[in-house]
Amino acid sequence: MKVTFYGTRGSCPTPGESTLKYGGNTACVLIESDGGDKLIIDAGTGIRVLGDEMVKNHEDVHLLVSHNHYDHIQGFPFFKPIYQADRNIHIYPSETTPNKPRAIIEQINGSYFPLDEHELRASLHFHSPDWSTQPIKINHFNVYRRTINHPNGGSAYLVEHDGKRVAYVTDNELSPPETPQTSYYEWKEFLLGVDLLIHDGQYIEQDMPLKHGWGHSLINEVVELSETSHIKQVAIYSHDPDRTDDDIDHWQNKIDAMNISSNIFFAKEQQIITI
Ligand SMILES: [Zn+2]
Question: Sign of dihedral through CA atoms 169, 170, 175, 181?
Fold first, then answer.
């Protein structure tokens, strides 16, 4: 399998000289199987560039959405395949509070965006499979879902193919102040031994206690989870908008100096991981 990061930033796009290395686009990841199946997770601003690449073919698009906060859907109106006739786009919304499974398309309404959803040319198919009987089959991928610890809810996904497993767990607070939707122990079990974990690491200790309960994890918590769940590779994701390349390099150096067995790195835009 191959994973490409099209957007790594949390909360808000951050163009500029200080974010060139790790990227300024918001959440979007592409997972590809060796056989060519594709699965997109999230439609932050990073999906625009992916769309420019996909526009050259007419294959069906499959998109999983973690939740409807704007940094996870705001790139969708700029995803060129939605303007192509004879294009099928399959969308798998997450469950949120309030539950708005069509939020990604409802933003295209003539107010937030100049067009109305009825002006799109692609055929959009919204899927709400029965997640109680996981895994869900999408192309040749097996997909598992868990509830993230995040304001308004949402979903994490584990994608399995050909004996390899990639988990996408962003906007997830590992130690929230309230009773978690998914406990630390449950995350450990769910993620045990995955080949690549993409996990939110937006915060550092100095952000607390102000941001405790805002639905993101500390970098140090992700490092600990990586070790206790024996995860091979970990991409720290959803970088804080205020975190510069130098700040992230500083944290990478701190992690590199630790005696840990997991390969932990900060996801960079356009980075490709082969597993
Ligand atoms: Zn969020």
Answer: negative
Q: How far apart, in whole angstroms, are the C-alpha atoms of residue 174 and residue 225? A: 9
CATH label of the domain that carries residue 182: 3.60.15.10
Structure confidence by residue, pLDDT tens digits, 179-218: 999 999 999 999 999 999 999 999 999 999 999 999 999 9
User: Could you give the CA distance from residue 144 to residue 80 in angstroms, rounded to a whole number?
Assistant: 28
Q: What is the 69 CA–ligand 1 centroid distance (Å)?
A: 5
Number of separate domains in the chain: 1
Q: What is the pLDDT of residues 28-75, one digit of tens each?
A: 999 999 999 999 999 999 999 999 999 999 999 999 999 999 999 999
Residue 221's domain comprises: 2-274
d(CA 92, ligand 1 centre) in Å: 17
One-letter amino acid at 144 equals Y
